Each structure stands twice: as C-alpha cells, then as structure tokens.
Model the fold of this input.
Amino acid sequence: MLNRRSLLKAGTAAGVLAAVPAGLVLGTSPKRAAAAATASFTVPLRVPQPLKPTRMAAYDVYRLTTREADVAIVPGTTTRVRSFNGTLSPLIVARRGRPVVIEQANALDVPFSMHLHGGHVPAHSDGHPNNEVTPGRSRLFHYPNTQLGSTMWLHDHSHHSHAENIYRGAATTYLLSDPAEDRLPLPKGQYDVVLQLRDAKLAEDGALVYDLNGFNDRPTFLVNGSPRPYFEVAARKYRLRLVNTSQERAFVLRLGEGDEFTHIATDGGLLPAPVASRVLQLWPAERQEIVVDFSRYPVGSKIGLQTMQTYPGETPEVMRFDVVRTAEDPSSVPAVLRPAEDLGTPTVERQFAMAFDQANNQHTINGKAFDVNRVDFRPKLGTTEIWTIENKDAAFGIPHSLHPHLDHFQIVDRNGKPVGPSEAGMKDTITVRAGENARIKIKFTEYSGMYMFHCHLMGHLTMGMMGQMEMVR
Ligand SMILES: [Cu+2]
Done:
C-alpha cells in the first residue's frame, strides 16, 4: 500500500506533468534502478495478427486462457508476463452484427474479471468484480457486437489484481469492424495497424518491475510489447489504431518534426469528420486513430514518433517508421466519416467530484471510495443524462479520468467552452486535468443490471476511485 508521503509526492509530480506545456522535461528525477538497456529502434514492431476462432456457428467462439508466459521483450532476456494465450498484445477482430463468445480460462494464480473496455454488453459479461473468475475456473463472456465499429480492449477488472494484471501484460485489442465503415476508402488490411502503447520498468534481467506508485519510474515505452520498435512501411497511407494500456502515462504524440497527420477516430469509433492534426493526446485507456500518409516522405526516410511529456532522463522516442518501399495506394480519407449521433434532450443531471482524500489516503468520487455493497445511483435506460465531472485536485495537481461502462458519451464542454472537432466523436473515457471540469452527455440503453464507473488511472482506481450504477427499466 502507499503511504501518504509517497502519494503526495506522486500527486505533485503528476500535477507538474499535467500543467507544463508540451515539449518540456519536468519534475524531479525519478529513482533509477538498474534497467535493461535497449537502444531505440533495434527491435522490429510486432504486428498483431487476428486470433482464429475455435468454433464458428451463429457466433464466433474464442478461447482465451489467462496465464503466465516467458516472452522476449528485450533481446537476450526473457520476461515473465501475465498474458492471454501466452502472447503479448494478441488481437481479436470481430464484425458488427456477428456475436462473439469468449471462453476465458483463468490459469493465473490470481482472480481475473475480464472487461471489454468500450463494449456495449450485458451486465453478466461486463467483468463486474463480483463475477471474478478464480484460478483454475473458466467463464463464458457474450459480446453481442450490435454497436458501431470501434477499437476496444480487453483487460482485468477484478478489484485487487487488475492494476498488476494489466501492468504484467494481459491486454488484448478487440477490433470491431463495421460493414458501413468498410465501404469507406480508408486504408485496410496490412495498412490498418494496431499500436498498443504503454510504459514499463524492466530490470537488468528483463523482469517487469511492478510498483503501483511507480508512475514516474517506468522509462521504457513498449509498442505491442516491443521496446521502442521500428516499423518498415510503404510510402502510402496507413491507418494507425493507438491504444494506451499504461497504468497512468499520458502520451502527447508528435510525428517527425511535428508533421501533419489526419485524426479519424477515438474511443467510440470514427469522428464525424477528419481533423488535420500535429499533436495527439492519448491518456490511459483511450484510443485514438490516425491516418498517416508516408508517401510524403522519400523511400529511405525514418520518421520518429515521440511523446512530448517525459520525466527527466527519459527518452521521448516511442517508435520509428522506416519508409522502405513504394506501394499502390487506392485509399483516401473522406470528408465525412460518421454523422454525430443525436443522444436526445437530457432530463437528469449528476455531479462527479473527483478528489484525493488525504485524511484517509484514498481516491474518491463525491467523497466516497468504492464499496461493492453500495449502489451509487440507478439510471433509467433510455434517458439522456448530463454529467459534470469536476477534478478537485488542483492543490495536488493530479489528473483524473472517468470511464462509465456500457455506453459511450459525447463531451459537451470543458471548463464551460465547447470542445473542438477532435473531441467531437463518441467517447468512453475522459480525462480532466487538475482543477478543471467537463460535462458529458450520456444515454444508457438496452441492458439492465450493475455496471461500474471509475477513474482509469490504475493507482487511483485501486485506491478507491470507482462506483457502481444499476441500470433499471
Ligand atoms: Cu484518478
């Protein structure tokens, strides 16, 4: 557990991180342990290949076994990880309109409660901590896939092991393809690539070092489980699906010398319209998708992807794209991607005050830490609500996020001002910086039962920043 002093230190450093303009190196020196030394761009990117269903009927059946495995992260060493099916960053590609059933067998020695982050799924398949799969047991998860296409991810939601299970590698991208989206001329096939980004601390022997409070001492960036890899690309357009599976790290990404790319999608899928961008924020649990046109670079070019928010001593490089060949490119980014949804007129308002409770050394929502025996509120299905999220930790400088399960939302405003076009899409996780506030509009539909809402910074979540809501008809 954290003591108060280390937590306060953590809060201060996080605040500095959140408040300082992009490009600056910030904060106090993180403690350094002997770390596995890997030069940047020496390891090729692993491109996740879709898992094959074990059975195909009216739905696709997958078997996911959560278990420990030894994998090569740093060349010459092995790293013991917690994995799905023994690999880092596997991929499930599902199709809208075609249900998926996953049989999850838990071969770890800790409980596991699988949650499809971003999934519109029945309560019994949502990974509520009460539905943990204990070691040696298995459980069926039913994902109807009736929602619009998007990039989601699977991770543990048990209330005691989730942070460490995610840190030790158990994170699977779940890509929901969509026939309507397939008709758009966006890059497809080998030119549509998932990039799972996270930070980590690796010991000299390659072991993952886990410390719930070590958010500023995870200097190695992994992309699909490889440290600062290079990726050989053709001189044409690529769709890159970025997923941040970090415990607490925000990536503020820049390509090359601040080169332009096209932002096309976020948590809930395609934006209403593409947005020409040069900086991309990717907070924990968020997804952002971009199209990069590598035809603007001559063959032989090497283009870095960097994060502009680093702790002292960190290397800002995340990965590198090496343009190695030319290729045909029939793809394009249409001016209209997906019309904004009309969520209706809100009739219910709720407040979410996110704050660190110094006296009790816990993180709270509306003054309360998570209690599995308390239902915080009961939304009526089909009703539109406005939620005000207020980050009360200006003094500590701690950012917080809010992730309601079951349905996506729209951001109405931040600090009273309407958000720009890059935040105009459907979201499922919103980060609010210290002392700031935001309003979201949300409408829960279809499934009754118990669902969670919580901060997705894993240290905060573990220290109580979660509640539960019961959907009622
Ligand atoms: Cu938080």
Notes: The first helix runs from residue 4 to 19. The chain has a mean pLDDT of 92. The chain is about 5% helix and 40% strand.
